[in-house]
Amino acid sequence: MISTPNMSLGLTGQCAWVLGASGAIGSAVAEMLAAHGATVWLSGRDKIKLAALQDTITQAGGQARLRVLDATSTDEVTHAAREIVRQSGKINILVNSTATSTFGDFLDLTDEDWEKTFQSKLMVYVRSMRAVLPTMLKAGSGVIINISGRAGKLPSPAHLPGGSMNAAVNLLTKGISDRYKGQGIRANTIAPGPIASARFDALAAQDSAITAAKPSVMATQGSPQDVAHAVAWLASPFAAHLNGIVLPLDGGATPTV
Ligand SMILES: NC(=O)c1ccc[n+]([C@@H]2O[C@H](COP(=O)([O-])OP(=O)(O)OC[C@H]3O[C@@H](n4cnc5c(N)ncnc54)[C@H](OP(=O)(O)O)[C@@H]3O)[C@@H](O)[C@H]2O)c1
Residues enclosing ligand 1, CB less than 6 A? Predict the structure, then answer.
């Protein structure tokens, strides 16, 4: 269960769409936004996980709606955005938090592995932003938060496809913020370091197998709620003057500026 500080972030009545809501980070983000008063649309392919999350949010007094989809399909993403606007009348906040687990050593990864990573992360973010931006521009406001990852800056041996997509997400989001600044749109990236999740456990095991070293990053592992708090704050009016940033969320572990 998500607990929120006793403080209003001004998200009551906002409509948020979270892609990857069945995942470790996306589900925490959805719970957090709902706990702060937003109506949250939950998207991913796994209907059972999404329905369970909807129950959790509803039982906690929040509002959540389901839109099951395969975000590798442009049509499904476009239709979902239209349906959300038809039912909720707006989309104020978009959060992208999708990925597949194509981990492995460089020489073992195939073109298909790279393509899968490209389609399930970078292109999902492209499709969803393209689908919501016309509505946000018409309203004169909107917040986009894209989850990338530390491996977009510091390569991780088993995670070169995902890391490359993270670097591209950082660039893409900055480009979107630049293109639409002055039109009420803010687009920011959060780049988490290791976050407690099945995804990170799988990656850490592969990294260790490749480098024969225990990853030192374990000591600085954060939680999905750490990411969710940052998303809620970035989505709020308290972050109104933040646009085009890549926010490292790693407990200070990244040894670069
Ligand atoms: N966990 C970490 O340590 C960590 C660190 C840095 C960055 N990140 C980034 O944070 C994001 C979320 O990571 P996570 O740990 O929450 O991963 P996760 O638990 O594996 O969640 C991944 C999400 O992506 C969704 N997804 C994948 N393919 C999809 C498709 N074709 N259509 C719709 N949804 C799709 C999954 O939904 P379905 O399975 O329901 O389709 C799931 O909700 C990713 O971008 C990841 O790279 C994670």
Answer: 20, 22-26, 44-46, 70-72, 97-100, 120-121, 147, 149, 162, 192, 194-195, 197, 199-200
Q: What angle do CA 190, 201, 187 make, to 5 degrees?
A: 10
| Tally of domains within the chain | 1
Please state, in angstroms and rounded to a whole number, the distance separating the CA atoms of residues 231 and 222: 14
pTM of the model: 0.97
Residue 193, domain member (yes or no): yes
**Closest protein CA for atom 12 of ligand 1:** 97
Q: Domain with 209 in it: what CATH number?
A: 3.40.50.720
pLDDT for the residue 213: 65
> How do residues 213-242 score in pLDDT, each as one tens digit?
655 555 589 999 999 999 999 999 999 999
Atom of ligand 1 nearest to the CA of 98: 24
If you measure from the C-alpha of residue 182 to the centroid of ligand 1, how many angstroms do you get, rounded to a whole number? 31
Tell me which residue of 88, 40, 84 sits closest to 61, measured CA to CA: 40
Question: Per-residue pLDDT tens for 108-137?
Answer: 999 999 999 999 999 999 999 999 999 999
Structure tokens at 116: 């899968």
Burial call 87-121: b when 16+ CB within 10 Å, e when fewer: ebebbbbbbbbbbbebbbeeeebeeebeebbbbbb
